[in-house]
Amino acid sequence: MIKIIIRQIGLLFLSLFTLSILTFGFTQTFPDNMLFNFPQLIGSEINLFEKYLDYLYNVLTGNWGTSRINGNSVLNEFLNHIPATIELSLMALVLALGIGLPLGILAAENKNKWQDKIILSTTLIGYSMPIFWWGMLLVLLFSLTLGLTPVASRIGFEYDIIPVTGFMLIDTLLSKQPYSIEAFYNAVQHLILPTIVLATIPLAIFTRVTRSAMIEVLSSDYIRTAKAKGLPYTRIIWLHGLRNAMIPIVTVVGLQISVLITGTLITETIFSWPGIGKWLLEAVHRRDLVTIHGGLLAIAVIVILTNITVEVMTYFLNPRIRYKK
Description:
Elements: H1 2-27, H2 48-60, H3 74-109, H4 114-128, H5 131-145, H6 168-174, H7 180-218, H8 221-228, H9 233-270, H10 276-285, H11 289-317, H12 319-322
Helix pairs in contact: 1-11, 3-4, 3-7, 3-9, 4-7, 5-7, 5-9, 6-7, 7-9, 9-10, 9-11, 10-11
């Protein structure tokens, strides 16, 4: 166990060091007057190694520079926008897992039958659909035609909710306004379409991975033994079967974090969702290199930490790795 932890910590530091080298190289393309406003980095008398040390010091101390868009600190801007993206991504992940796991199990139980073929065909369509097209289609149908859901933003403009945590669902419930419950339901309505759009591709992937893992598990000897003992079928599937199929599923969940973050670039733009995706896209349009650097650096760190966490979780879930000598 200690060796695994040490190896993962070493991998984490190696990944972060490589990331710092790459992002430092990116900053060397900046004009001097845009270089994070770090006075110690500007000047031909400073060699490249000293510049890297100064860059590393400023990044670690939170001095990520100033945005050209509004003059605010890039780190503060990132911290202001990240709760919206986390809230949307978590809801999309919950939706994808909540639907993908049962569909995958159903397809595995009915391998090569009509249920399996319908599920596989549907997931293939969902995986192949462009996010921007799917999002605009849902807006046209449910927002503009049927009027069931709002079009954009996180909450209606008629609600004055003071941000406490940055998560709108929580802040509406914490609000002392008399319309806090009404504002909560309004925030949920705003969350429906972006969540569906962002969850579509991960849902298709989770369904297919769950199906493959469950087919392998259901053909195992211990499943046949459990059936011979007369255990309830739901317990065999959901306790013994799904538990042992979770290893590849957890691995794919970790990999899908980067897919969710990439998907927010388009999803947040379509629904005017004030998260890091929309924030970074605006920075690209305005050629705000300092903001682009800070956003990409933070996202890369999040993805690296997530993948390391998934590796540790896989170690605890898989006894063959845990007890390997």
